[in-house]
Write a structure and sequence with these properties.
alpha+beta; Yope Regulator, Chain: A; six-stranded antiparallel sheet; 6 strands; 35% strand
Length: 113
């Protein structure tokens, strides 16, 4: 799950329009928080945004891969999908997808409470 400092800086630059995005290193990767909302994972030089039933179809249609890992010989899929690479060159689209990821995280959080 390693992520380089350079990639982390690249992602933070791409998400500048969101304001303060907090980074928390974990398991060699990193989690991204907007306010107290966990909305993204950085792993293996890939940015993954949080999805739910409303936003997941957009990622599938764009051909994005889900965040998966191996645990005790089993494949685990988390509700995060890789962000389309083109978004790094399209700041407005990157912001829109990031805000959708934040909204998805908030919807899930609301369901859990």
């Amino acid at each position: 799950m390693a992520v380089s400092r350079e990639f982390l800086d690249h992602v933070q630059d791409a998400l500048t329009s969101l304001g303060a995005v907090r980074v928390r290193r974990m398991f060699g990767g990193a989690g991204l928080y907007w306010q107290d909302v966990f909305f993204a994972i950085l792993s293996e030089e890939t940015l993954y945004f949080r999805v739910d039933e409303k936003t997941e179809p957009d990622y599938i249609a764009a051909g994005c891969d889900p965040f998966i890992y191996q645990q005790r010989g089993k494949t685990v899929k988390l509700p995060y999908y890789a962000v389309p690479e083109a978004l790094f060159d399209e700041p407005e689209s990157m912001e829109a997808w990031a805000r959708d990821a934040i909204a998805a995280a908030l919807r899930v959080k609301k369901k859990e409470s």
